[in-house]
Amino acid sequence: MDSLDSLDRLIINHLQGGFPICERPYLEVAKYLHISEAVLIERLAQLLDKGLLSRFGLLYHAERLGGALTLAAMSVPETEFDQVTAIVNAFPEVAHNYARDHELNMWFVLATEQPERVPEVIQEIEAQTGLTVYNMPKQTEYYVGLRLEV
After folding, report:
1. 134, 139, 141, 147 alpha-carbon torsion, rounded to 10°
2. In what order do the strands lie in the sheet with 106-112?
């Protein structure tokens, strides 16, 4: 896998703090970083193409928009893990999917446009995988301003 150079690190570290809401947000970020808008856009595209960034985009608060979020987990046999991962990740409602060293070794977040869609997606995943999905809806929300300096 390719490694990050100093400009890639600068871009990633800066963008973790937010993205401006304006007519030309890439230009504003590029000015702050003392690079051109074209270089910024190209670097982001390269980071995504190389898999060094898995995603670059907005995070919506689904519940404030009338939707729903939930944390779900599954116990997936190791021999089927890649196949089940592909099935789960094919659902557009799956926002994040993580492997864990635990009996429940696959954890993912579902974000749906309508609250009633959460149990429907869970049933669809169970039907396609033959495995139980444990739904763990949020009881209390906490904000953690996580920054991972690279």
Report:
1. -30
2. 94-99, 106-112, 68-74, 133-136
* 132 and 66, same domain (yes or no): yes
One domain, residues 40 and 100? no
Question: Could you tell me if residue 150 is inside a domain?
Answer: no
69: domain CATH number is: 3.30.70.3460
More confident residue, 137 or 54: 137
Distance from the first to the final alpha carbon of the chain: 16
Per-residue pLDDT reduced to its tens digit, 32-46 = 999 999 999 999 999
Q: Closest by alpha carbon to 127, among 84, 81, 78, 79?
A: 84
Do 36 and 97 lie in one domain? The reply is: no
Question: How many CA atoms lie within 13 Å of 43's alpha carbon, on the beta-carbon side?
Answer: 21
Cβ neighbour number for residue 83 with a 10 Å cutoff: 12
Do residues 102 and 128 share a domain?
yes
Q: Is the pTM above the cut of 0.70?
A: no
> For residue 16, is pLDDT > 70?
yes
8, 1 Cβ separation under 8 angstroms = no
